[in-house]
Amino acid sequence: MSSRRYAILGTGALGGFYGARLQKAGLDVHFLLHRDYDWVRHSGLVVESPEGNFSLPQVNAYADVQAMPPCDVVVVALKTTQNHLLPQLLPPLLHEHNWVLVLQNGLGIEPEVAKIVGGDRVMGGLCFICSNKVGPGHIRHLDYSAITLGDYAPNYHPCGITERMQQVKQDFEQANIPIQLSEDLLLARWQKLVWNIPFNGLSVVLDATTTEMMASPPIRTLATELMQEVVAGAKACHKALPDDAIAKMLDNTAKMKPYKTSMKLDYEAGNPLEIEAIFGNPLRLATQAGASLPRMTLLYQQLQFLESRKIVLSVKC
Amino acid sequence: MSSRRYAILGTGALGGFYGARLQKAGLDVHFLLHRDYDWVRHSGLVVESPEGNFSLPQVNAYADVQAMPPCDVVVVALKTTQNHLLPQLLPPLLHEHNWVLVLQNGLGIEPEVAKIVGGDRVMGGLCFICSNKVGPGHIRHLDYSAITLGDYAPNYHPCGITERMQQVKQDFEQANIPIQLSEDLLLARWQKLVWNIPFNGLSVVLDATTTEMMASPPIRTLATELMQEVVAGAKACHKALPDDAIAKMLDNTAKMKPYKTSMKLDYEAGNPLEIEAIFGNPLRLATQAGASLPRMTLLYQQLQFLESRKIVLSVKC
């Protein structure tokens, strides 16, 4: 049984699910909350899941990082749109040998976190999970839960499989979370963008589910072309993705149930969109490396427009 | 006073306005109607316009081209989405020396009309007009009315300024319609697409007015990039558009009142969109000529998706 202690920053669809599963598996978990702090402190967490419903009537809940005990692994499970909070949240949580695990979409976040906590403390993870927060402390897990884990070194220099990756893997597997280890975190992040860029972006712009998009021949073509651009962007950054992965990914998407992407859910909920992590950062990285990515750029421009208008609308209301 | 007789196919926002003005100026005009036939036959046409309101209590209205008298100029003022009707509508209207004037958006229509009526009978016109049909036989003209007129020869071979162009110009100017003559119809059609492609397309996809789009820096950039692609597409077809026209066009657009494009109005009204004339035909022409137009293609794909979904929705209702 691991004695590692976990801090979870952001107890929502993602952090609430993984943190609760870790605690249920016997690990010592400490949750940072904001809006739901009072509720969760008194009532704990409830997780509905096809893998088994459970509740944790008592959890270690905090409204302030200053009150949290020293933790071995600090899991950043906020949306990237809240990362402006990290310079305040992370420094009080640093202890001699602990690490920060960034469980977020897109790329370019680890370098920002490294600026705050140092380049040798950061790991990254990509979550393949369908999960929603449906009420205070109430998580509805729908499908999947796997995480691809990679270690971080400055400039995303590949780290191979490190000892601490193995340790995190052991803890999460104890909680029945499938963990895949990646020797190259940036490669893994680009790989996930092959799906996220076309389907997150187009689902918002076209107000569409994956099923509707896959049923449309022009959108299947466009999704393929966007995926090819992501592969080209990765290649410009010296990350070789298998070109034949695209056809397989489209096939899998066509077989999925009608699915609203995370960006579409955020858009419908009026939450900020993770445009910079998923579009802006990859575009800047790849175009600086010489790639020309007109379709990704166009989608980025359309999303910026929709996001800025949403902000104007909500200020008016 | 001209003795030329005009047939107007499509007595809507465009054909209703121009036809009424020609009749008011003393020309002999014959209107083909469909839905509004009974109304207009009994009550005539009403035109509201900042240039002067007027009504024509009696017009020559027809529900069937077979009943129309021989006309010197047959004006096609239908939406391009109704052009599948032309093989039925045009042949009965052909007489020894008459012409067909295509007043439609986009490009690639004249070759289709030439297949029906012969390559030496076709002229084309591009309308710069804001006008709506607000009720049966009731046209609300808002702004502008100019037409750029060009003669057609097979494969859009430039015709220069022909005698019959001068004659049509004379008739329309008699009705106070500003007419510009173009020596090269295909060049003129590409020129108009420089505006129509970005703003018609994006207004539908982003649900936005010209003012909202011009207020957004990413969309101004995108509109510029789309315009550059249209210029590149024209160039591949050996039509040289002035590159500096783009900045001027953007400036003018920024100064316009909030304006819904014709495609946006069609979308809101549930009418078919002129996607093929404005996007499909230019794209096919330019890519066959070797141009690579990823942004125009993406917008075309998005519009096809929105259009196909709209059709599914209306079949369901």
UniProtKB/TrEMBL annotation, chains A, B:
UniProt entry tagged with the keyword Oxidoreductase: yes
Transmembrane segments annotated in the record for this chain: none
E.C. designation(s): 1.1.1.169
Catalytic activity entry: (R)-pantoate + NADP(+) = 2-dehydropantoate + NADPH + H(+)
GO molecular function: 2-dehydropantoate 2-reductase activity
Entry keyword set: NADP, Oxidoreductase, Pantothenate biosynthesis
Domain of life, per lineage: Bacteria
Family matches, as InterPro entries: 6-PGluconate_DH-like_C_sf, 6PGD_dom2, ApbA, KPA_reductase, KPR-Related, KPR_N, NAD(P)-bd_dom_sf
Ketopantoate reductase N-terminal domain: residues covered: 6-153
Biological pathway: Cofactor biosynthesis; (R)-pantothenate biosynthesis; (R)-pantoate from 3-methyl-2-oxobutanoate: step 2/2
Residue ranges annotated for the Ketopantoate reductase C-terminal domain, each copy included: 184-306
Entry GO terms, CC: cytoplasm
SUPFAM superfamilies: 6-phosphogluconate dehydrogenase C-terminal domain-like, NAD(P)-binding Rossmann-fold domains
GO process annotations (BP): pantothenate biosynthetic process
Function: Catalyzes the NADPH-dependent reduction of ketopantoate into pantoic acid.
UniProt record similarity statement: Belongs to the ketopantoate reductase family.
This protein's name: 2-dehydropantoate 2-reductase
Taxonomy of the source species: Bacteria, Bacillati, Cyanobacteriota, Cyanophyceae, Desertifilales
